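lol ok so funny story. i was supposed to be doing the assay writeup but got distracted and ended up predicting the structure for this chain instead. priorities right. anyway since i did it might as well share w the group, maybe its usefull for someone
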Amino acid sequence: TKLSAMLRHFGLDNDSLSRQQLMNIFTYGKVLGWSNQRSLDALKAGKTPGPEMSLSKMGLTRQMQATCDFVSDVLEARLVADTGEWGTFSWAGFVLGQPAMRIAGGSDEVMRNIVGERVLGLPKEPGIDTTSPFKELKVGTQRNG
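and the output, tada:
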């Protein structure tokens, strides 16, 4: 993979912490792949997937964050300084764009609510009053009168 090639290129392939980080990313990716396949199989069979989609989305963002942490640890300052060295520049955009993935496709917070309510049977999060007209809603920033 590109990550293992990067590890070798920068001479960290014998570093136990870096190797452990890489194996965690790889293992997590395999588990996510199996979970995604389970969802696809359910869709192909005409069934509605269970919580796998929400769990996979949250897992993907965690794996991407772990990848960003790994890349940042390996590249250090080379991550932000375009040295022209192999394996450096292409990761800057990935690391900078990763926080947006926590929002794309439904925020991690929304996904947690879905899992909490539909899988764990927790009560629904308190929401706004949908039966009252907007102008009658009590909001702390409204003027009295």
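Residues 16-44 form the longest helix (29 residues). The radius of gyration is 21 Å.
back to the writeup now i swear
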